[in-house]
Amino acid sequence: MTAENKRNEAMxxxxxxxxxxxxxxxxxxxxxxxxKRISYWQDAWRRFRENKIAxxxxxxxxxxxxxxxxxxxxxxxxxxxxxNTAINQGPSAKHWFGTDNLGRDLFARVWQAGRVSLIIGLxxxxxxxxxxxxxxxxxxxxxxxxxxxxxxxxxxxxSVPYLLIVILISVITDSKSLGTMLVALTLTGWCGIARIVRxxxxxxxxxxxxxxxxxxxxxxxxxxxxxxxxxxMSLIIVAITFDIPGYIFSEAFLSYxxxxxxxxxxxxxxxxxxxxxxxxxxxYQLLFPGIMIxxxxxxxxxxxxxxxxxxxxxxxx
Amino acid sequence: MxxxxxxxxxxxYILEAVDLCKYFKAGRKQYVxxxxxxxxxxxxxETLGLVGESGxxxxxxxxxxxxxxxxxxxxxxxxxxxISKLKGKELLHFKKNVQIIFQDPYASLDPRMTIGEIISEGxxxxxxLSEEEKEKRVNDLLRKVGLNxxxxxxxxxxxxxxxxxxxxxARALAVEPKFIVCDxxxxxxxxxxxxxxxxxxxxxxxEMGLTYLFISHDLSMIQHISDxxxxxxxxxxxxxxxxxxxxxxxxHPYTQALISAIPVADPEADTEKDRIKLExxxxxxxxxxxxxxxxxxCRYATERCAAEAPVLREVEPDHFVACxxxx
Amino acid sequence: xxxxxxxxxVENLHVSFHTYAGEVKAVxxxxxxxxxxETLAFVGESGxxxxxxxxxIMRLLKPPVAEIKPESRIICNGRDVMKMxxxxxxxxxxxxxxxxxxxxxxxxxxxMKVGKQIMESLMLHRNMNKKEAREEAVxxxxxxxxxxxxxxxxxxxxxxxxxxxxxxxxAMALACNPKILIADEPTTALDVTIQAQIMDLMRELKExxxxxxxxxxxxxxxxxxxxxxxxxxxxxxxxxRGTAKEIFYESRHPYTWALLSSVPxxxxxxxxELYALKGTxxxxxxxxxxxxxxxxxxYCMGICKEQNPMETSITDTHKVSCWLMHPKAPKVKSFYDxxxx
Lengths: 317, 327, 341
Known about the structure:
The complex is a heterotrimer of chains A (317), B (327) and C (341).
Chain A: H1 2-11, H2 40-50, H3 52-75, H4 106-142, H5 144-159, H6 162-173, H7 178-205, H8 208-215, H9 220-256, H10 268-276, H11 284-311
Helix pairs in contact in A: 2-11, 3-4, 3-11, 4-5, 4-7, 4-9, 4-10, 5-7, 6-7, 7-9, 8-9, 9-10, 9-11, 10-11
Chain B: E1 13-25, E2 31-43, E3 47-51, H1 58-65, E4 73-78, E5 81-82, H2 88-97, E6 98-101, H3 115-126, H4 131-144, H5 161-173, E7 179-183, H6 191-208, E8 211-215, H7 219-225, E9 228-233, E10 236-242, H8 243-249, H9 253-260, H10 303-307, E11 313-316, E12 319-321
Parallel strand pairs in B: 3-8, 3-9, 6-7, 7-8
Antiparallel strand pairs in B: 1-2, 1-4, 4-5, 9-10, 10-12, 11-12
Chain C: E1 6-19, E2 22-35, E3 39-43, H1 50-57, E4 66-68, E5 73-76, E6 79-80, H2 86-95, E7 97-100, H3 104-107, H4 114-125, H5 130-143, H6 149-152, H7 162-174, E8 180-184, H8 192-209, E9 212-217, H9 220-223, E10 229-234, E11 237-243, H10 244-250, H11 254-261, E12 311-313, E13 319-321
Parallel strand pairs in C: 3-9, 3-10, 7-8, 8-9
Antiparallel strand pairs in C: 1-2, 1-4, 1-5, 5-6, 10-11, 11-13, 12-13
Helix pairs in contact in C: 4-5, 5-7, 7-8
Subcellular location (chain C): Cell membrane
Membrane topology (chain C): Peripheral membrane protein
Keywords (chain C): ATP-binding, Cell membrane, Membrane, Nucleotide-binding, Transport
């Protein structure tokens, strides 16, 4: 009842008569856009920025990449420079991360090792995603028997342990360089992405906008280039981000067990392996490369999480 | 309907489906007969409504008729010429003449393209236009479907459902088609927006002499927009007649049940009394009933209906029914 | 049988969604009441707040994105729903009030037999043992006209058709004998013939169980001979409310006229244009101090763009929020009626 009274009171103020002439619809006011224009990538960037954790991960990665590029120069030492007068020194003003059992500056070595690890991570993931995308795209586009055969091949490849392949390749080529490891890792690494791309493309193929393009007579190549790939891009980017830590860890693991990078070149895994022998006495030698591996992997994973949330069109409002 | 005149036609019909079949494979040696020996003849400038419950094959029929799906068997004639086997350039030419508008205004526009790019996609294929000509045409089309030209460089997700559907219409019109399949274009829209889109489609038809195959499950909208109506059940056309006949003098029991199930916006209308209730639901298309596919839900079903499938025959001029009762 | 006992009162309901672009005020001051055994329909287009209102009654909206403003009051059977704790809410949903949704597939658990899903709530809310619950579940399935109910209890949802699943949903919702049933677009996803079956079933159950029903729908046709009272909603507000006859025959709000005349009428053979509203509903991020319908209204007056109109009573049941009801406003005739019915 109180609401009723309030209403009647509000009706009371005298409203001038001219307010009650019908003015109808203002034709021009109808379709004005209330919100400002944003493209897909702008919108994704807005959402990404809101994700503080992913943002921190991205900053950490940028800082690490900066040091990986410039770190060895900052230290003032060559990474392979042996100094017999300064063996196994702890962190100090002279050697920020200390030195190893040959007196090499660890600060220079950690960043030099980071180059190898990061190159493996980045190149491995990119090569794998390019190969995987093409493979998955072809399988999805042709479908039917082609798709069946291509996907069975992927399944077979996935069932072969990559350690076996690495050993086989290093035996056959008789080398344990960066290149061999890359080949070994990407040989089966693209399979995951191929599956993701195929799944997405199959889904896109039956989407109405692709059917519409078909009805317009747009050629298959153009449909792939203009509709399928742009709409798979975000998925591939996320997959790459999630793949990078996998490659970094695989490299670290291989180097740790001695199948990877050989001296005097080094990587985080190799540094860990070397440090492990003297771990009881010089724990910092293991600590720094260990932290690097953990930090990079964590950052890439968190970044991937953020990217996935930002790029997923289903979350758009 | 004088204004609905097209170009001098080569044939009385603009598009004909003759014994058209489209089967989808579903597991080993099992087929879903989504379109099963369908015969439709579309006249120049008319609107043929195609109704039926979900899974009856109306959408597949529409898509197969414009070769979006490859027909399993049967012929499709466009202005008298068989186009079911065309390839390459000739197929491209056919595709310029027939277009489609989709149901889902969200899935039918590429989220990564601007509205301008979406509308001009067909022009890029079929017309050699300079950038300025293209822009002018996009603006013309936007105005034609009642949208602000400012939308050209916006993205689909910034638009409402009704606006998106207008973009879908503009994209189809861009290549100057003669025939458009409207595949449930209003089902996903709100009532007031539905009316906008239907009015727009009817206006465009008057102005451009288009022929529509209008697919919908909304019988009252079909009645409003169509000149003739075809009723589909499990892949077959059971009745095909002018709109007035379908709604007042239908002969097939299924059509009668469908018509009487339309909810009436009138509290005093006693729908209970004269409604023909249909028991049960549509059988699985994987193993449809023998004989007449509707017999399992038909209250007049006889032994003959189980043994023999009725064929679509003309019982009155321009009124086709597939039912043993109407012989 | 009909008593005038109020079982639900909602006052000044405000619901907001917090999104990146700002606060979307989805429901803006809705009040209504529901009597025992009565059927009330919320009619409106998508985004008008009808579904949000219905979900708020059950407190089904997830915070922190959705917020029911503290000034809102929801009283069900004398209990304040806004103040209920988690446990109380859980008992409240099911015992007193339950809900069926548009898409039965998403509200049924796909990995659980339908009978078991019904039995679960029976055992929980009505303290039945397994055997009793199973018998009751079969009885419920029979009540919603599922043929072969004894066998069907052991089916999984995917083994059933859409109409069948919706029947199961109804059986589940009614299993604990709630006083209020909220049906959120229960027939929208179904075919016409199935839609008619489900509406018949709901009509039958309404009479049998004397449950009050809130029907949320965009389809005036479904509502016409089902609802006792109808509320027409737009942009989070109720623009017009009244008995079904008042809304269909004597509506006073231009938006109601537009809704009624934008659907082709059965048996109407004219091929003239349908009445189509121009433009789109307002963005609910905007504050809107004017009449929300002003920008699309043929009879928009100066005052409409300055102030939101108050609700005017035409009869005890029929209320309209429109400046045209003001004594100074010009008299306009409904454009819906002129087409005849």
